[in-house]
Design a protein that fits this description.
Number of helices: 15
Distance between the termini: 31 Å
Largest sheet: 7 strands, mixed
Mean pLDDT: 90
Low-confidence stretches: none
Shape: globular
Structural class: alpha/beta
Strand content: 5-15%
Radius of gyration: 26 Å
Order of helices and strands: HHHEHEHEHEHEEHEHHHHHHH
Number of strands: 7
Strand order of the largest sheet: 2-1-3-4-5-6-7
């Protein structure tokens, strides 16, 4: 050890001890914050308030950014810390219970409740005070019939390719029972539900995986079926869970899902397939990847940690997807032609055309991505 290094040991040790003391105070404050979050959750549960209040969150972040600037702190740093605290708060708050929006509802039956998405909805309904029953596709028909005989809600949560068959196999439901599905395509499923059940019908598409810590800020697509008044309570219940609800017709839903899900999953599949056959080590690619490229690889790689059959079903669920992918391939070939011709001018023109389509969102997305990258770098 050099003399210069030895001379730094004592002051560094003293400063580090002070930092450790500050960190302990931060931990105490975080623990106290979670205690207060628990109390807030109980109040919200009693009064039927959603766990996610976007206006309150936006106002709080804005105020704390301004306060950070006044104190000479980075507003971005303060916002990152607060958003991480809020994510933990939503996770903590979700276990406090929720107001039951339909107090007189009969039992809620989840068909496929042993699956991951089915069990998530069964848990959320249980936390909301409903009498929840779980049945599976291969349960004896007489057992299923007994379970749904007095049901106020039946939720079908089975693989996409099985949903229509499972719906057709259901015994007659009580006339006032609300029949719901959780699949990612809607036209065929909605038509089947309306055919097999004369009572209220609602389509739901959770735009998230079953491993979420909380439904706060998650998106649930809602497709009206029959008797919207009879299903309004469930939509409001989902809002209480913290989710953002977006209502749209079945046909529009399936068109948008082609772009949001099917096309993107297919493109990711092909990109992953290509990487796997380019004979380069993934660790070497990661070593040379800055945070933005690492994040892109992460988003590709996460697909292949999941259920291959599920993603095949998502990609192929709608008959319109093949035509959509064909249009994508045509544009890909047109873009490739620009490279073959060395047409810089045309490339720049098309680039700017696309930028104009994104409009102000492009700058917003640039700012959002910086925040994601900062968080991704902090978690490595």
């Amino acid at each position: 050890m050099t003399e210069g290094n030895a001379g730094a040991d004592q002051p560094l040790a003293a400063l580090r001890a002070q930092i450790d003391d500050v960190d302990s105070q931060i931990l105490d404050l975080l623990a106290r914050r979670l205690e207060l979050v628990g109390e807030i959750g109980e109040v919200k549960g009693r009064h039927g308030l959603p766990i996610y209040a976007p206006d309150r969150e936006a106002a709080m972040i804005s105020a704390k950014r301004a306060l950070a600037a006044q104190r000479g702190l980075s507003p971005d740093l303060v916002e990152d810390v607060l958003r991480r605290c809020m994510r933990e708060s939503y996770t903590h708050e979700k276990n406090m219970g929720f107001t039951r929006r339909a107090p007189d509802l009969g039992p809620a039956v989840v068909v496929g409740g042993g699956g991951r998405m089915g069990s998530l909805f069964a848990r959320m309904l249980t936390l909301s005070g409903y009498d929840v029953r779980v049945v599976e596709r291969d349960d004896p028909p007489e057992q299923v019939a007994r379970s749904v005989a007095d049901a106020g809600l039946v939720v079908v949560s089975v693989p996409i390719h099985d949903t229509v068959a499972v719906l057709r196999s259901l015994p007659p439901l009580p006339p006032g029972c609300l029949l719901v599905d959780l699949t990612s395509t809607k036209r065929a499923v909605m038509a089947t539900m309306l055919e097999v059940h004369p009572g209220p019908v609602l389509g739901l598409h959770p735009m998230f995986g079953p491993d979420v810590d909380s439904l706060a800020k998650q998106v649930v697509a809602v497709v009206p079926g029959r008797d919207e008044a009879a299903s309004r309570w469930l939509v409001e219940q989902i809002r209480l869970w913290g989710a953002r609800v977006h209502e749209l017709p079945a046909e529009t839903h399936d068109e948008l899902m082609g772009l949001i899900q099917a096309l993107r999953h297919f493109s990711t599949f092909v990109y992953g397939w290509h990487l796997a056959h380019e004979d380069h080590d993934l660790d070497e690619l990661l070593a040379l990847s800055s945070p933005i490229y690492r994040l892109e690889l992460v988003m590709v790689g996460r697909l292949f940690a999941q259920d291959a059959e599920l993603y095949y079903d998502i990609i192929t669920a709608s008959p319109d997807v093949v035509a959509l992918i064909q249009r994508y391939l045509t544009r890909y070939a047109q873009a490739f032609e620009l490279l073959l011709r060395g047409d810089r001018e045309e490339f720049v023109a098309r680039f700017r055309e696309i930028g104009n389509w994104f409009g102000d969102h492009a700058e917003t997305f640039l700012a959002e991505s910086r925040g994601l990258l900062a968080h991704a770098d902090a978690t490595r």
